[in-house]
Automatic annotation (TrEMBL):
Recorded family membership: Belongs to the protein kinase superfamily. CMGC Ser/Thr protein kinase family. Lammer subfamily.
InterPro entries assigned: CLK_kinases, Kinase-like_dom_sf, Prot_kinase_dom, Ser/Thr_kinase_AS
Region (Disordered) residue spans: 1-66, 427-447
A molecular-function term among this protein's GO annotations: protein serine/threonine kinase activity
Source taxon at top rank: Eukaryota
Domain Protein kinase per the UniProt entry, residue ranges: 44-409
Protein's UniProt name: Protein kinase domain-containing protein
Record bears the keyword RNA-binding: no
Length: 447
């Protein structure tokens, strides 16, 4: 039985394993639709998996039902805040409701910055599709249209292929990855970012919630027909050194094209923000590389490098936390672009937290060895590798192309890890005790 894939998050979805292919895959781009009926349903964009035949070849790394089953908590419609339904907000939609005289809603999938996402069935062709229904506010409509344009930008973007969010697996599964698995994850992400940057696109919002695992058609069908409203089950091959899986990079709703001037607000997720994302209006590729570094740090350590508390004045507080880990932040690299409202963040010495001299290398090593995620030698390599993403001067930050050849990403001994019962019922867990004795890694390049 051939396997096809379902896009859980709409918007441009980048197949991380197929980026270097010179021969683009054929696909049907996600379409942007408007329903000008009495209810004024806002713009929707959709992606699907067909019940019919497909000419697309299945990537060799696609997951299958032979993988371990992972239970992921279902998103709850009640999680959508009441204010989201206010004027110019998202429409109220219920499971089983017909949308646009074409789609029947089957399951609520999630709520983002400007849209709700639904699993629907297309009554015309029988496809299962992900339908993103945006707020009717004109600003959010423009974001949706920009995202759709990024969908159509390149024929090598696999618009229909995605699945469960990466952060759901990281946060819910108590899973310790074999070093080869986490390195493969990192390489796939870097290849996607390299490709996107070559196309002149700056993503602006790279984070685990915008990265997805590909899932097979059987899993899509199970999600669509399951009566369990508490968990979805996805089969993923993540348990051993040779695990095969495919990650996707999605959600280009606030992406920028180089050479096109647009006024930029501060990026929405401070946890993955570069300092210039807060301090300036400048848009450039190093912004993405900082975010990639934050994702890599979380993949390896299971913790956020800098947590974000959204209280009044939290941007300044966030920068201070950044300086406490990475060292004092000078004004000089951002001098020509500093936002007027941020000038008071810098002291008389033109630094944020001047004199801070943390042992960043030790902080990274300790985080990587905590709970035996990596052995001591691998952790040393990791620290040198990830430090390249956190240069406070954007011009000195590593590029995706250079990061891909770093020694940290060399694969280690091929030793499978043991699947055990997790602390949480129904969730798979991995014992990494044998993987922690993996082969030594040579010093990271470029340091």
């Amino acid at each position: 039985m051939s396997k096809r894939h379902f896009a859980k998050r709409t918007g441009s979805v980048q197949n991380l394993e197929e980026l270097s292919s010179k021969k683009p895959r054929s696909h049907t781009p996600a379409r942007l639709q408007t329903f000008p009926d009495a209810d004024q349903l806002p713009t929707t964009s959709r992606q699907s998996t067909s019940n019919k035949g497909s000419s697309d070849k299945v990537p060799t790394a696609d997951p299958s039902l032979q993988g371990e089953p992972y239970k992921i908590r279902c998103a709850k419609l009640s999680s959508v805040p009441e204010h989201a339904y206010e004027e110019n907000g998202v429409p109220r939609i219920a499971v089983g409701q017909e949308v646009g005289e074409q789609f029947d809603t089957l399951k609520f999938l999630g709520f983002g910055t400007y849209a709700t996402i639904w699993l629907v069935k297309n009554k015309v062709d029988g496809n299962y599709e992900a339908l993103k229904i945006t707020k009717s506010d004109p600003d959010y409509q423009r974001n949706a249209k920009r995202e759709s344009q990024k969908n159509n930008y390149s024929s090598s973007i696999a618009v229909r292929s995605a699945g469960t969010k990466f952060n759901e697996v990281l946060n819910q599964c108590d899973l310790k990855f074999h070093p080869n698995v986490l390195k493969n994850m990192i390489k796939q992400l870097l290849k996607a970012v390299e490709y996107v940057h070559l196309k002149g696109i700056i993503h602006m919002d790279i984070k685990p919630a915008n990265i997805m695992f590909a899932i097979c058609e059987e899993d899509v069908r199970n999600v669509a027909t399951s009566l369990d409203d508490s968990h979805n089950i996805y089969h993923l091959d993540l348990a051993h050194a040779n695990s095969k899986f495919t990650l996707k990079l999605g959600d280009f709703g606030i992406a920028f094209k180089t050479g096109v001037h647009n006024e930029r607000q501060i990026a929405p997720t401070c946890t993955y923000c570069a300092p210039e994302s807060i301090l300036t209006t400048e848009v450039n590729f190093p912004i993405d590389m900082w975010s990639v570094g934050c994702v890599i740090y979380k993949i390896v350590t299971r913790r956020s490098l800098i947590s974000c508390a959204r209280d009044d004045g939290h941007y300044h507080d966030h920068l201070i936390k950044m300086a406490e880990i990475l060292g004092s932040i000078p004004r000089a690299p951002f001098n020509n672009f500093v936002r007027p409202e941020c000038t008071h963040y810098f002291g008389a010495d033109d630094h944020i937290l001047y004199g801070g001299n943390p042992d960043t290398h030790k902080i990274f090593v300790d985080a990587a060895t905590r709970h035996d995620y990596l052995n001591a030698t691998e952790a040393e390599c990791f620290s040198k590798f990830v430090s390249q993403f956190f240069k406070l001067d954007p011009k000195k930050r590593v590029t995706a192309k250079k990061a891909l050849i770093d020694d940290f990403l060399l694969l280690v001994g091929d030793k499978s890890v043991k699947i055990e019962t997790a602390e949480h019922p129904g969730l798979s867990s991995v014992d990494l005790s044998d993987a922690s004795t993996s082969q030594p890694c040579s010093s990271a390049s470029g340091n």
